[in-house]
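Hi R.,

As promised, here are both runs. First protein below:
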Amino acid sequence: MKKSKIIGVAGLAAIAGGGYAAYKTMTKVKVLKATYDQVIAFNGSEKKYETFEGDSYAAIFAGVEIDLSQAKMVGDSASLRIYAEFAGVEIIVPTDWNVKVDGIADKAGVSNQVDYRPDDTTSKRLTIDYNIKYAGLEIKRVDQEDSIEIEIEDEPSFGDPDIDEVEVPTQS
């Protein structure tokens, strides 16, 4: 009898804890909706722009791909604000844009594969400002997309090259 009460109390505590975590997350989502144009929670999102004049994204427990590769920028400059918590964000930018990246990464990773050219005054300028926690942010140009080079040997070597087959004993 005592053991079943302990299990029951532990189960109720787990349910209450899960409910509290969901409540806190949804409260945070409401606050973020007041600050950011796009809020993605517990989901994935892909956005491909034809024209771009600026935007802002918040992602919680989510994956977001922002594809600006074919976008035409309205005006000479635009900004993109990113907030991510326990999320992954990928941003693909055109080759002819000058991209300035700045932000805060708290226990998070940023892979910025674009070079900012401060002396370039003729290119369109995109400013990416980020605040990420326990998240990943990747920024790359369209020509860098899926350009990871992996060297693979012609034939893998697994021991003696003269042995074609290996007998595996079976258990009886």
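And here is the second one, sequence first, then its structure tokens:
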Amino acid sequence: MRIAITDAREGMKVARDVFSKDGRVLLKAGSLLTESSIRYLKKQGVIAIEIEDRLLSGRKPVRPNSDPVWQEIISEAEHTVRDIWNSVSQGRGIHISRIERIVDSIIQELLQREITYPKLVDIRALDDYTFTHSVNVCVLSLIMGIAKGYSEDELFELGIGSLLHDLGKIIIPPEILGKADTLSAEEMGIVRKHPAYGFSLLVQEPEININSSLIAYQHHERYDGSGYPRGLKGDEIHEYAQIVAIVDVYDALTTDRIYRNRIQPYEAVEMLIAMSGRGFNPDYVKLFLKNVEIYPVGSIVELNNGSLGIITGVDKNMPVRPQILLLKWEGERLVPTGDEVDLMKEVTLFITRVIKLDKELLEKVLGNS
């Protein structure tokens, strides 16, 4: 479990060696933190460490915390997309160097940590959808690119294009983009112009590779030729755009929108599987399912029978049917019951929702002091 050094407490056990910026081991795995060692790590510029997750091992849980490194990177990515959107809408250009820096940061963090993480940005307001969605799509696409074995140059092209894949939406009037009712044929025609416009914006930038620009142009094309703007099919669609098309739909389905509520991840996965071979390249759908955790280990979930539990294991071949340690209330705390459920075997049970708690309430629920 990764926590900010500011959240480290005496008695916590270090799960991985802590290194300095020049590669020296500052603290070995297995060490128990002391007040002096925490001060030392802070002085050395350490901002985050890995500690043992005591909740999953059945012991008293450590203080939960969102990953500070991801928080910083993802927050900057969202601000970057917002600023570029505003800049382009006002007739100014794209700040290429800023985009390159943030994409490189995301790539390096993913390569370093070798993680699969489904949704790095929670939507804070419906008005923020375009910006947060762009960041989610970028990260998910890069996870797939890493799994596919792309070089860093290829990941960079994929990251740039996926982060800017919806830039063409600046031509869509706000009253259409934010409309809660069904779009008219005329309004839908306007919406369908955004891939071509996004492509025209990106292709004008000499520092943006054509492969990145094609993501904006082709991410609404479909494997069977039913997409737009050109009705391309199969390998006529650039492979980057085929990847982005899948994660674009998945993230959109699992996010609240003005005109509909989000659906559960397992429902979105079922839709992707149903579209495999028709809307999407089946090989890339399989790649998505095997490398993007729908329910990450450590997620607290509710089952259709009302039980609460925490995800303890995930089968990559069937990510919507994880292993779950059941929890029960003891006063104001959630504690393990000792019973585990394997949804691969318990076919009548399924996850109805992920329990999202703010930091203060989560600490209270898990009984951490």
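A quick note on the second one: Strands lie at 2-4, 18-19, 25-27, 48-50, 300-303, 308-313, 323-330, 333-342, 351-354. Let me know what you think.

Best,
J.
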